[in-house]
Specification:
- The chain folds into 2 domains: about 1-85, RNA polymerase sigma factor, region 2, helix turn helix motif (Rna Polymerase Sigma Factor, Chain: A, Orthogonal Bundle), CATH 1.10.1740; about 100-170, Arc Repressor Mutant, subunit A (Orthogonal Bundle), CATH 1.10.10.10.
- Helix content is about 75%, strand content about 0%.
- It is built from 8 helices and no strands.
- Helix 2 packs across helix 4 (about 65-100).
- The longest helix has about 35 residues, at about 65-100.
């Protein structure tokens, strides 16, 4: 039955694709939940898996079961999430070092830091995130943003200054 749905989905039939993904949804949620031990994360990762499956349905080659293909996507998606979480944790630790508890009421979790980041202007937030969250060097950020290296350095600097001010004035 899956093979018929898959072929129809690969031919562009949205209803077949929806039915196929609905059929495997709880299987993927349970798999990710078992991997992570985190129910909400399981639902979040599963949503990403479904999006990737929709985008890549034509890459499924019928050599394995559809569920095996989905598990492969789920595993990679979960591992990507874990890598991103490590980067967030490193940024959080770096910010904790920048803002010692004695001088600042530092946010207790990443969400509060993210809220402060979102208050920054795009011109400062984007280079700051690319530098300190993703670890790109100034030259790469300059290429990505089509700015001069000096401009990127300046924006990262002012972004950090503004972030410090935002976190210091925060009454959390």
């Amino acid at each position: 039955m899956d093979s018929d749905l898959i072929r129809r989905a690969q031919d562009g039939e949205d209803q077949a694709l929806a039915e196929l993904l609905k059929k495997h949804y709880s299987f993927i949620v349970k798999y990710v939940w078992k991997m992570s031990g985190d129910e909400q994360l399981a639902y979040d990762v599963t949503q990403d898996v479904l999006i990737k499956a929709i985008q890549k349905i034509n890459q499924f080659n019928h050599r394995s079961k559809f569920s095996t293909w989905l598990i492969q996507i789920a595993t990679h998606t979960y591992l990507d999430y874990k890598r991103k979480q490590k980067k967030k944790d490193k940024l959080d630790e770096k910010l904790r070092k920048e803002f010692p508890r004695s001088s600042v009421s530092f946010p207790s979790d990443w969400h509060e830091v993210q809220e402060a980041l979102w208050k920054l202007e795009d011109e400062h937030r984007i280079p700051l995130i690319l530098k300190h969250y993703y670890g790109y060097d100034y030259k790469d950020i300059a290429k990505m943003t089509k700015l001069k290296v000096g401009t990127v350095k300046s924006r990262v600097h002012y972004g950090l200054e503004n972030l410090r001010k935002e976190l210091r004035t925060d009454d959390r």
